[in-house]
Amino acid sequence: MAEDKRFVEEITPMDEDFTRWYTDIVTKAELIEYSSVRGCCVIRPYAYAIWENIQKNLDAMFKATGHQNVYMPMFIPESLLQREKDHVEGFAPEVAWVTMGGNEKLAERLCVRPTSETLFCEHYKNIIHSHRDLPKLYNQWCSVVRWEKTTRPFLRTMEFLWQEGHTAHATAEEAQAETERMLNVYADFCEQYLAIPVVKGRKTDKEKFAGAEATYTIESLMHDGKALQSGTSHNFGDGFARAFGIQYTDKNNQLQYVHQTSWGLSTRIMGAIIMVHGDDSGLVLPPRIAPVQIMIIPIAMHKEGVLDKAEELKARLGASFRVELDSSDKNPGWKFSEYEMKGVPLRLEIGPKDIEKNSCVLVRRDTREKIFVSLDELEAKAAEILDDIQASLYQKALKHREETTSSAVTYEEFKDAIENRPGFVKAMWCGDEECENKIKEDTGATSRCMPFEQEVLGDNKCVCCGREAKALVYWGRAY
RNA sequence: CCGGGUGUAGCCCAGCUGGUAGGGCGCCACAUUUGGGAUGUGGAGGCCGCGCGUUCGAGUCGCGCCACUCGGACCA
Fold it and tell me: Which of A228, A324, A349, A412 would bridge with A361, disulfide CB 3.0–4.6 Å?
């Protein structure tokens, strides 16, 4: 189609080169601009507006589950970071250090937070004394820095935005319940707002967070069949509490250690939105988080009454939707392409012919279907279509994941699946890290998670070593 | 961090064996246009990634560095 041909010059088709398609989208849709600092990107207003919608809705879910927002310092003294052995070992290789204050060398260097467990622990040690002080359900929205060797917009940047929840509980049971509850919040958020289906499960020890007792994850599948860890929730048990001395007096006047959790979701999720829903014409945004849900494009706007009518529709729709009117002097064809690139879910065309008929044209971004609508029923129809787009984006992504998820019983089947059928591969695992390492070496795939919904494949033997299996694992190549 | 590729106007790129910086798109002004990235006329815009070297002379040659990009390793 002529229409698709135009974009060949602008966006690399995803089937030709998915990674180039991705980098084309993030710049052409005005999401990212590179900065002069390696691995650090400017998050442009359009992308930031998406992030704000993510923040707004996710934050409401945190509040609804009893959490409070706080803000911690961005610097961590070296001695504080080193308090928990596994934690510091995990993060040390990717920490940025501040060694000078003005012209003075610091007595103790400060790390720029790669995550804030240690700061929360120090604070909790000071404010938790009694069982009456528990639980503490804190969250912070901030940026963190990790000195990454390879970076990619949204997926892995040296500085990124996220939220990190940190909670302290009286018992191990409460901490476990919190860990699972927040994982479910993430899963619900991804499915309901971002239209991204996720697999919920537990990470293997090899893949779990530094210092955690257990790490839970939501894993999503990109259009190219690669997996993306989209959010994690950790149960720390009392490990950090023992390292930092966070104790409270229980009802029996006994000193107890608290049990802690942490959970995070970052701007990396923006990469998932792009790679799950996008197509060769650009972004496709789920209506619930799209900065602009309806873009009004006047046709022949110099003609009497067109702009007035467009303004009137904007005011009307503005009562229920995020709506914009593009009355710039670009021609309509340019505007159509531009807002397809930006993934605006619904386009409204209004011209002299429509006004004559008291109607307008709605065009869906996901299917490009043109729908002629009477202005009398505009709000109802727009709401219905936006809901349908939201639902069908989810269904399409779910169908794609299901169609690209395969199972393997023998190692030959497994290697063949990873190599030739991009997507999750379900296979049994013995629980031994050596098999994970071998699989990584042989195929490039890693264990994504042990899903909550377990099954037994074949005669329950590890796909790699053939010994008795301990769990079903989702495997895949990942970002 | 290892290997490949690329850095020239906002973007895409040309620039030969060294000799005064080019094109298309975009941008600005005006006019005509407007249902899938319009047309015409005029105009503005360059530390040729940075540094050092060779040379009478470097966008071009040499060395070093930086950034982006693709692949890998790493990133729990």
Answer: A349
Architecture field, domain A404-476: 2-Layer Sandwich (3.30)
Q: What is the mean pLDDT of residues A429-439?
A: 95
Question: For residue A234, which nucleotide's C1' is closest to its Cα?
Answer: B76
pTM of full prediction above 0.80: yes
Task: Summarize pLDDT for A117-132 with one digit per residue, the tens.
Answer: 999 999 999 999 999 9
Query: A471, A431 in Cβ contact below 8 A?
Result: yes
Which tokens hold the place of A284? 């496709």
Q: CA A97 → C1' B68, Å?
A: 25
Determine the distance between A329 (CA) and B41 (C1') in angstroms. Answer: 19
Query: What residue has token string 């769990």?
Result: A471
H helices within A405-452, ranges in order? 411-420, 433-443
Give me the sign of the Cα torsion angle A362, A364, A367, A368.
positive
Is any atom of strand B within 7 angstroms of residue A56's beta carbon?
no
Question: Domain extents for chain A?
Answer: 14-277, 294-388, 404-476
CATH 3.40.50.1000 fits A294-388, yes or no: no
Chain A residues 280 to 339 with C-beta below 7 Å from nucleic strand B: 281, 299-302, 329-338
3-state DSSP assignment of residue A62: helix
Give A397-430 pLDDT, tens digit per residue.
999 999 999 999 999 999 999 999 999 999 999 9
Any atom of strand B under 7 A from CB of A358? no
**C1'-nearest nucleotide to the CA of A444:** B72
pLDDT band at A36 (very low <50, low <70, confident <90, very high): confident
pLDDT of residue A12: 87
Going by the DSSP 8-state scheme, the letter that residue A251 receives in this structure is: T
**Residue carrying the six token digits 């700061």:** A119
Q: Which of residues 374-433 of A touch strand B (CB under 7 A)?
A: none
Mean pLDDT of A350-361: 96
Among 3.30.460.10, 3.30.930.10, 1.20.120.80, 1.10.10.10, what is the CATH number of A14-277? 3.30.930.10
pLDDT for A103 equals: 85
